[in-house]
Write a structure and sequence with these properties.
Largest sheet: 6 strands, antiparallel
Oligomer: single chain
Strand content: 25-35%
Structural class: alpha+beta
Helix content: 10-25%
Order of helices and strands: HHEEEEEEEEEEEEHHEEEEEEEEEEEH
Number of strands: 23
Mean pLDDT: 90
Low-confidence stretches: 1-12, 30-50
Length: 473
């Protein structure tokens, strides 16, 4: 017989309990090593913001100390920059928070407008239209000034809705002495409906019920509109005098078609009030309802500007849709939903690594399965410049970022620079962007990506970029 090896003799010579103890010790060591590697990987992922299915930033970060207006990014070529509206003494120096859509192959922009400064008595909502984007009709009042001596108020523009084949504008007045206009502004549908979902945890404000106003756009070419009306039967008591003075009706006073359309709206509706078949993919709405602000923790510094986008189809196993939140943290918070239709299924919001200069944001779908976009002020700095366009192919990894607008480069707009014309306005740069995707079957001449913002909170400006240039990342 051959001699047993030393290892065999030792093994045979040890009691079985010692061999079991040895084996367990080796396994314990392996577990510790494995868990250590997992822990390191988890820390790295956390540092990068890659926390499960949380949106995260892998694009280069902007540096405001670099070339003014570019911050280290390249700029997407613009087909043109156009002035939708110039601020002025006669027409109101303050212009901000634009909303936009496309209807019947016509571009539409609305925004809040005040004599001198932000969210002050006399603030109203203006609007304008264009069939080309580079030339705009004279602005008209969309929602009137609702201030009275007893109730100082400021109007806010909401998202546009398409119900059936009919276009409606939305807006809300805020009692500015009760909560500094908080609880009135909303960027997503159906937040404006009662029970209103606009009051942020840290600054909820104290606004009355029944603030939602609507107005049907009858003809975008001639800018013909129907009467302004409350979605409720009567105005909030504090607005009764202003409603009477401005001829604002209750829903019961409206025509049968309008009443039928409004009756389809609900805080948890499963059909989107958008039109994705006639030239734009833009839809500022959450199926089943957006996340409720009163489910968010107090103290996170969440503002009431937020945006929503669906996860691209190929990546739906990781989530159905996302809401990004503006915050005071230098980056966006996010919530991810799995089923895409239930208001109660939004995840607890978490801080991402997606940078933001404490400003409004807007996200949406890119055409032909190219992912999703985000327009924002992605370079935290002393001023809000530039506006950037970021792209994520899967809805989670934001890997590309370029400049869409900067106040240092508006060659078509010599009046709009990085310095406001009104001497009491210290705001600098373009901010509060909204993007509009124009695609088939819209005419080829107007297809592309449009970004509208307000430069220095004074001028409403629009930039058009071709799809070839936008998708070349």
């Amino acid at each position: 017989l051959s001699k047993p090896t030393k290892q065999t003799r030792v093994s045979r010579g040890k009691p079985i309990y010692q061999r079991i103890t040895q084996t367990m010790a080796r396994m314990s060591t392996l577990c510790v090593i494995t868990l250590t590697f997992i822990g390191i990987a988890s820390l790295v992922q956390s540092a990068l913001g890659i926390n499960g299915n949380l949106p995260h930033w892998t694009a280069p970060k902007g540096d405001a100390s670099k070339t003014p207006g570019l911050a280290g990014f390249s700029k997407i070529p613009a087909e043109f920059n156009a002035a939708v509206y110039y601020g002025s003494r006669g027409g109101g120096w303050y212009n901000h928070a634009a909303m936009t859509t496309l209807f019947n192959n016509t571009l539409i922009v609305s925004w809040k407008n005040a004599p001198e400064s932000e969210d002050t008595p006399g603030q109203r909502v203006l609007w304008s239209t264009s069939t080309t984007g580079d030339s705009w009709a004279e602005a008209r009042v969309l929602f009137p000034n609702m201030s009275t001596t007893a109730t100082p108020a400021a109007q806010f523009a909401g998202p546009f809705l398409v119900i059936g084949d009919r276009l409606y504008a939305t807006g809300s007045p805020a009692v500015i002495s009760a909560g500094d206009a908080q609880g009135a502004q909303f960027c997503l549908w159906p937040d404006g409906l009662d029970p209103r979902n606009c009051a942020t945890p840290d600054r909820p404000g104290t606004q009355p019920k029944g603030l939602l106003m609507m107005r049907r756009i009858l003809d975008v070419t001639t800018m013909e509109t129907g009467p302004v009306f409350w979605v409720s039967r009567s105005p909030p008591t504090v607005y009764a005098a202003a409603a009477a003075a401005n001829g604002v009706r209750g829903i019961d006073e409206m025509d049968h078609q309008t009443q039928e359309d409004v009756a389809t709206l609900s805080p948890t509706q499963q059909s989107l009030p958008c039109d994705s078949e006639h030239g734009t993919l833009k839809c500022e709405a959450c199926v089943g309802g957006c996340q409720l602000y009163d489910t968010i923790k107090v103290g996170l510094g969440i503002a009431n500007e937020r945006t929503h986008y669906p996860i691209p189809e190929a990546h739906r196993s990781r989530g159905s849709d996302v809401i990004f939140y503006r915050s005071h943290a230098g980056a966006l918070y996010a919530s991810v939903r799995m089923d895409g239709r239930t208001q109660g299924n939004w995840s607890e919001i978490q801080l991402t690594t997606v940078p933001n200069d404490d400003s409004n944001i807007n996200a949406g779908v890119l055409p032909k399965d190219n992912g999703v976009f985000l327009v924002s002020n992605a370079v935290p700095a002393k001023v809000r410049d530039p506006i950037t366009l970021s792209i994520s192919r899967d809805g989670f990894d934001w890997s590309s970022c370029r400049v869409a607008q900067t106040c240092t480069d508006f060659p078509d707009l010599p009046k709009s620079t990085c310095k406001a014309r009104y001497d009491k306005n210290g705001n600098v740069g373009p901010s509060y962007p909204q993007a509009l995707t124009v695609v088939d079957p819209a005419p080829a001449a107007i297809q592309g990506l449009y970004v509208v913002s307000t430069n220095n909170k004074e001028d409403v400006v629009m930039t058009k970029m071709s799809w070839k240039d936008v998708l070349e990342s």
